[in-house]
Amino acid sequence: MMEAPSYNPKQTAELLGVPVKALQAALRKDAYSPTDVWDLRAKLSKRPPSIGSRKQLFLNFKGGTGKTSLSSSYAFRLAEMGYRVLLVDLDSQGHATKCLGYEGEDFSLTVLDVLVRKAPIALAIQKTPLPNLDFVPSNLSMSTIDLALMPLAGREFKLRNALKEVDGQYDVIIFDAPPSFGLLNLNALMAADDLFVPVLADFLSFHGLKLLFETVQSLEEDLGHVLDHVFIIVNAYNATYKLAKEAIEALRTHYPEYLLPQLVRQCTKFAQASSEGVPVFLADRECKGAHDIQAIINEVTSRLATKQAKPVESKRAV
Hints:
Helix content: 40-55%
CATH topology of the largest domain: Rossmann fold
Mean pLDDT: 93
Structural class: alpha/beta
Shape: globular
Radius of gyration: 19 Å
């Protein structure tokens, strides 16, 4: 189980975006719990910029890109910043569940029960020590979900429809998907507003990207679903490798409109955090990986907040 983080006055003031004096005038403590921080947000009216109600999918058909480490740390940090977050683990290996410090086998309900057996999603949602971070766990029982979905009517829309039950309860719902294409990932794509595609700076990533973009294009044509945004994230980047630099240039050439300028550098602390079952911000919030994920969050939330401030536009095609 994830241990509740503890924040010193300086860290708490930074999370809230207030001077330490203002923090201590509101609540003076040597250490602040996540619940303290959440309560202080309301007391001091320090909510993060609105990005609307987003459903965001982390997906790459190629495995080994560090997708789950990114998605779980991204979700955790958004919650620390004051967003109400639900992380939905769609992978039968339960790695996103593990990255939050839990074991999937300890839970009886997963997305399988919600989509196939019609259990209310509220029954599958679990709490974490952060009052505004919840998750839906996964375990090996999820391995049969594609077969179970096959005969169902409206099978592509099961996840989208199940989430209507929690409309308005979360600012961001994040899906961590397995590296494969099947009915569950089709459900996730049909439910998502934004697609995050983690890639490594190597040329093997290009085949997976091409296949993924072809799939997204077919969703537009066949099912009429257009994603608002696609963000390609380069993960585990090592600038000392010539091949990595060449791969980055190729990505900039072929996918300039989707490639985020911020790279997630290769970071041993990041890999260690995942193996220990904690988000990188709990393991070492000053490491390169944590700083890089923060930079990505700043970029993405800035774009989404800007779009929120503008008149409603038609969805952008991939």
